[in-house]
Structures are given as structure tokens and as C-alpha cells.
Amino acid sequence: MKSTLAVTAYLEELKAESGASRKCLERIPENLFDYKPHPKSMAMGYLALLVAEIPLWIAVMIEQGEIDFATFKHKEVKTTQELVAHLDENLRKAEQALSNATEEQLQGDFALKANGQLLFASPVMGSISSTINHWVHHRGQLTVYMRMNDIPVPSIYGPSADDNQFQKS
Which parts of the sequence bind a divalent metal cation (predicted)? Predict the structure, then answer.
């Protein structure tokens, strides 16, 4: 069945991306949660929260079919440990929702709203893929913030400049 293959692929992709996301979040110190590289930029703590929270969006898409930015409640985290625990919890929820999803849920529609106004609508199955891409995008932004603050960037898809064995003498 096509959806079963897609669900398996999404579960594998979540697992593959989760390690790098976790390694990044583990390195974000609380004293830099308010850091912004530019006045228009997100604060590092909020960006890190998005990296921890976006996997939850997958569960909400499948189980509720809608996210409204006006009513979606962000968890308040005060420590790096809480941030990482939030990621782990949201990954479990995403994996559980994907594993238990019915054909009807996967073929259903997903709506993204702001204060009840429709911003975007698409089938749940396609929205899962774009959500994983969105997650990776925000993690990439976070690594730039890390670099700007001399926080060692972990290996993500290959060696990082911060991996000692790959630094030039």
C-alpha cells in the first residue's frame, strides 16, 4: 500500500533527522535564549523551541487536521534540558501518530490558519513532507546562530568544521 510505504519513509526520515536536531539543542545555553543576530530575527530560544516543537505538528496534522497559530500553545521552556525533553516528547508523539494513522487521516486535508483565517491547505500526506523540510530549515538557521556564538556545530550530514579531526593545522 502506498501510504504504508510513505509512513515508513516519514518515520525513517524523522529518526534520521532527530539525532542532529537533538545534538544542536543540547548545545544551546539558556543565557543565549534571548540572542538575536538582527532585530528582525527570531530569538535563539524561540528558534530552538521551534526545532523542538515542529515534530509535534505532524501529530497535530494527523490527529486534528488543523493548526492555528493563534491557538497553538507553545510549551514554555526555561532550560536546555527542558528543550531537549520537549523534542523527545514531540518526536514520540509524531512517531505514534504516524504509526497509528488511518488511511482516512492520511488522505484527509490539513489546514494552517492564523486567527481562523486559512493560510494554507493541502492533503495531510503532503504536509508531512513539507513539515519535515521546515524542521530541517529551522535547524539550519539555528546552526548559523550557533556559529555566530562560537557554539560548536555538530556533524549533521557529514563532518562539521568543529569536528577536531577535520580542522586544518
Answer: 134, 138
